[in-house]
Amino acid sequence: MNGEHETAVLSPQIGWLLLAMLGLLWVYLGVLWGKKAKNMEGYMVAGRNVGLALAAATAMATWVTSNTTMLAPQFALELGVWGMLAYSTACFGLFFFAPMARRIRRIMPNGLTSGDFIRLRHGKPAWIVFLIISLTYSFAWLVSMAMAGGLFMNAIAGIPFEWGMTTVLLVCVLYTVFGGLYAVIGTDFIQSVIILIGVVFVGAVIYNRIDFDVTYAVVLAERPAMLYVLLPAAIIAFFNNLLFGMGEIFHNNVWWSRAFAMRKGVAAKAFVLGGLFWLPIPIAVGFIALTSGVLDINLPRPDMLGPLAASQVLGVAGAVIIFIVLFCSLASSIDSLLAATSDLVTEDIYRKAVNPDASEQTVRKASIGIIIGLGFLTWLVCMNNPGTLAQVLFASGPLVGSAIWPVAAGLFWKKTNPWGVFAAMLLGSLLGLWAYSDEYGFGWYSGALVGSAVSMVITLGSTLIWPKDFDWNSLNESNEELKKGTIK
Amino acid sequence: MDGTEEETVDGVAVDFIKTNTAFVQLSWTIAGTEEEDAQENAPPDENAKPDVNGGQAENDEEKVEDAPDPAAFAYELERADNPHFEEPLTLYEGRDRASFQPGLAEGDYFYRVRAVDESGASGEWSRPLHVEVEYQSMRLAVSLFALGGVVFLATLVLVVAGTVADRKEREAEGS
Question: Nearest CA to CA, how far is A293 from chain B (Å)?
Answer without folding.
Answer: 10
